[in-house]
Specification:
Layout: H1 11-26, H2 40-49, H3 56-67, H4 69-76, E1 81-85, H5 91-95, H6 97-100, E2 104-109, H7 112-125, E3 130-135, E4 153-157, H8 167-180, E5 185-191, H9 196-203, H10 209-225, E6 234-241, E7 246-253, E8 257-261, E9 264-268, E10 273-280, H11 284-293, E11 299-303, E12 309-314
Parallel strand pairs: 1-2, 1-4, 2-3, 4-5
Antiparallel strand pairs: 5-12, 6-7, 7-10, 8-9, 11-12
Helix pairs in contact: 2-10
């Protein structure tokens, strides 16, 4: 069974997305929300990023999953409901299917088209699991459908995606998860702060896959609001903000350009930046404080030998 709900399939939802993009583009410091990176092409490009040797989070997290699989499984519990936030191709969740033996699996992501393909394959491979998927902007509000049992829920949020949120936004998300877990838990990944040289390569790889991923957000915006961005007029730019403990992604205008869309226009001067993503880096102590503030009590932490990354289970 695989019911799906498409984000933006009503006029009101589409209007909200358009308005959000317009507010960001017309701001004094222009920005585009990172959720718009994940259109169908963007989702495929991000999968390619995770295969790069320079992008350490995926392989490091996978190694932690492998080395501590039994401990993680014991913490999460067997036979419950697995709710996968930002599921993408669902491969990370599938890794635990044989050990967790979930009765229900709900995959949630922004791009429903990409998600439908992934969950259709899962439903065929695991007929004993009730596989469902839905599109949702869970950064705003998490709404779990009534078809998902309220007991034995475990949320799964790998890939250090919590780092894309400002502290207040991360707190809001964690509070929602705590509420929707109904006494269950959360397993998630957190990237830990490290040397600039490692971070730079991870977010600006020599093959320029990350650059393509970042630039593709302009295609996503064009399709949503009818704008006329041209990718060749912008370039991918990475900055490390030590004060805020984060990597910041931007698109830099290579020349003065005027971007138009129905009812609006915006001039971008040469060198002007459009902010597209933050990737906050934590310490074990700082993520612990964030969990505390959101009402999570029990925490188990697993890290790699280099302390590059942490996998955390909280209840």
């Amino acid at each position: 069974m695989q019911p799906t709900t498409a984000l933006g399939n009503t006029q009101a939802e589409h209007h909200d997305l358009v308005r959000e993009i317009e507010i960001g583009l017309l701001s004094e410091s222009p920005s585009i929300s990172p959720k718009f990176l994940y259109d169908p092409l963007g989702s495929h490009l991000f999968t390619a990023i995770t295969l790069l040797s320079e992008y350490y989070p995926t392989n490091t997290e996978k190694d932690i999953f492998s080395r501590f699989e039994q401990q993680i499984t014991d913490a999460m519990g067997v036979g419950g409901t697995l709710i996968d936030l930002g599921a993408g191709n669902c491969q990370k969740a599938e890794y635990f299917f044989n050990s967790l033996k979930p009765k229900n699996y709900l995959a949630i992501d922004f791009s429903i088209e990409y998600l439908e393909d992934a969950t259709a394959k899962l439903a065929g491979k695991y007929p004993q699991i009730n596989v469902q998927c839905m599109s949702m902007d869970f950064s705003k509000k998490i709404l779990i459908p009534g078809s998902i049992p309220e007991t034995d829920r475990v949320f799964f949020y790998p890939g250090s995606s919590i780092g894309n949120f400002l502290a207040s936004e991360a707190h809001h998300l964690l509070c929602q998860i705590k509420d929707q877990a109904k006494g269950g838990g959360l397993l998630f990944g957190v990237d830990l702060m490290k040397e600039d040289s490692i971070l730079k390569l991870a977010y600006d790889d020599p093959l320029k896959v990350t650059a393509a991923f970042n630039l593709n957000i302009l295609n996503s915006v064009n399709s949503l609001i009818g704008s006329d961005f041209k990718i060749e007029n912008f370039t991918h730019k990475v900055m490390i903000n030590h004060k805020e403990s984060r990597v910041e992604l931007f698109l830099e205008s290579l020349e003065k350009v005027t971007i138009t869309w129905p009812g609006h226009s915006r001039v971008f001067n040469k060198g002007e930046l459009i902010h597209t993503e933050n990737s906050h880096k934590y310490t074990v102590e700082s993520i612990g404080e964030l969990l505390d503030q959101a009402g999570f009590n029990t925490t188990q932490i697993w890290t790699d030998p280099k302390k590059y990354y942490a996998v955390i289970y909280a209840e």
